[in-house]
Amino acid sequence: MLPEFNYHTEKDYAENLPSFDHIYAAQVYYYELRTEKLLIFGEIVAEFDLKLDYSPESLIALERIYFDMMKNNLFYDLSLTNEEFEEYLSIYFGEVIVRNSLDAEWVVREYPFVEGTYTMGIRSGRFTTHFQNLFEKHYLSCKDASKQTIYKRYLRMVRKKA
Description:
Elements: H1 9-14, H2 23-46, H3 58-71, H4 82-100, E1 104-110, E2 118-124, E3 127-130, H5 138-141, H6 149-159
Antiparallel strand pairs: 1-2, 2-3
Helix pairs in contact: 2-4, 3-4
């Protein structure tokens, strides 16, 4: 007889989500989180002589930096993990969408499987994408920046409005 598994991915996911008494506290938290991470990310990429301008084309340069850091093991030199960089890049990616699309906006919603926990995402048209890290282990999805996968993802997301 096979053992019974009681694995609930939705509850495991919720363990990493912040919990709040009401949505307004969650909205403030996520706004401050985005602001702080964008500030830190700006300092990180300044080490590579890049200024965050929130243009879609900046995603191409950031993907190059990501793979350069991965290839030359530079995350350690900046006291940073690749996961942290991917999270910063995810927030920046979302901000690029919001600033360059007329109908895109940041949203905070209660996670439907665990009361009192909230997620952050981007709504553009009828579509909403909630995330913590859009580019988790990005280095496994492509070998280098030549395919511009992050920029192409941006193009797909802003086209999905209908």
